[in-house]
Protein: Probable 2-phosphosulfolactate phosphatase
Amino acid sequence: MDTRFLAIAELAEAPSAAVVVDVMRAFTVAAWAFARGAEKIVLAESLDEALALKARHSDWVALKDGPPAAGFDAVNSPGLLRSADLGGRTVVQKTTAGTVGALSVKEASLVLCAGFVVAEATARLLRIRGCGSVTFVVTGDDGRADEDLACAEYIAQRATGAGADAAGFLRRAGE
Structure:
């Protein structure tokens, strides 16, 4: 498998397969939302779009980065979602890095959004699909967030069938 690790700003064209990595917030929150019963997640391009979607669908749950704000149900925090009942609900998510990265590759044939909590499942799907070329979009800190790069490198190694040990990658992410 041919892999590239790029920042959002380095994307010149839609790749055939993209794995967008945001460990700290967006896609760890997304995994928790699905674990808490969310039916689907809609990624918003802006805070205004997220609020407009919420206004049209009052039963949807709107999440954003940063401090709480009027119109949003919660902030992007895995810890806050641990007790939320999202059964059958749609979540609207707007973040400063992860959702921006995912929307920047929305024309790709395959777009996966990942963090460490879904790393093995992501690698397994890449193996099953037999992706010959995968672009990993490292979203945090303008593409320099080591937790995102560590996760992307771990997924890439696992996707090729290598017996990568997560411990070293997780240590890097925690530093």
In short: The mean pLDDT is 94. DSSP finds seven helices and eight strands in the chain. The helical segments are 26-35, 47-56, 78-81, 98-104, 119-129, 146-159, 166-174. The longest strand covers residues 2-7.
